[in-house]
């Protein structure tokens, strides 16, 4: 199997965060100022609870690839209007690349360290990656 370009892997990981799907994003489940009385919507606190609760089907376990992944999902509940492609790409500061065996894989990008965590600084590949998105 041939290696996948980093931009394709990152695009897939971001898509798996489901930033526009319940409970994130600007869906009809969100309360708005224009809601008629009597129409019940989920509160922001309830939506955040669904992201954080260990028993929730909307809690993602597979966010070990970046410390910012869970934070971005919460931001998609709190302020979904801020999320656009440039914002999302600039939000990530660390990307942890793991091999198939689950260990951190070797490679020149992993030589970059942010706060002691081996990872890939997206600023180094932002121009190449953005072209692929």
Q: Enumerate the spans where pLDDT stays under 50 for 5 or more consecutive residues.
A: 106-133
Helix share, percent: 25-40%
Please, what is the average pLDDT?
Answer: 76
Number of domains: 1
Number of helices: 5
How would a crystallographer describe the biggest sheet?
A: 2 strands, antiparallel
Strand order of the largest sheet: 1-2
Give the C-alpha Rg: 17 Å
Classify the secondary structure makeup into a structural class: mainly alpha
Number of DSSP strand runs: 2
First-last Cα distance: 23 Å
Strand content: under 5%
Overall shape? elongated
The helix/strand order is: HHHHEEH
Characteristics:
133 residues, mainly alpha, two-stranded antiparallel sheet, 5 helices, 2 strands, 33% helix, elongated, disordered C terminus
Lay out the secondary structure.
Elements: H1 6-15, H2 44-52, H3 68-78, H4 85-91, E1 113-114, E2 117-118, H5 126-132
Antiparallel strand pairs: 1-2
Helix pairs in contact: 1-5, 2-3
Short structural description:
The protein has 133 residues and is mainly alpha-helical.
Please characterize this protein's 3D structure.
This protein has 5 helices and 2 strands. It starts with 5 loop residues before the first helix and ends with a helix. It is elongated and about 55 Å long. With 133 residues, the protein is mainly alpha-helical. The protein has one domain. A hairpin with a 2-residue loop joins β1 (113-114) and β2 (117-118). The chain has a two-stranded antiparallel ribbon with strand order 1-2. α1 (6-15) packs across α5 and α2 (44-52) packs antiparallel against α3. The model is unreliable at 106-133 (pLDDT under 50). The chain has helices at 6-15, 44-52, 68-78, 85-91, 126-132; strands at residues 113-114, 117-118.
């Amino acid at each position: 199997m041939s290696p996948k370009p980093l931009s394709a892997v990152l695009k897939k990981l971001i898509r798996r965060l489901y930033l526009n799907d319940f409970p994130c994003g600007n869906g009809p489940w969100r309360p708005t100022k224009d809601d008629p009385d009597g129409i019940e919507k989920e509160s922001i606190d309830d939506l955040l609870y669904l992201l954080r609760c260990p028993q929730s089907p909307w809690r993602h376990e597979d966010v070990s690839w970046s410390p910012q992944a869970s934070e971005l999902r919460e931001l998609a509940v709190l302020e979904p209007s801020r999320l656009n492609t440039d914002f999302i790409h600039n939000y990530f500061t660390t990307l942890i690349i793991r091999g198939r065996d689950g260990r951190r894989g070797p490679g020149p990008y992993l030589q970059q360290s942010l706060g002691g965590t081996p990872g890939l600084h997206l600023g180094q590949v932002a121009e190449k990656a953005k072209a692929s998105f």
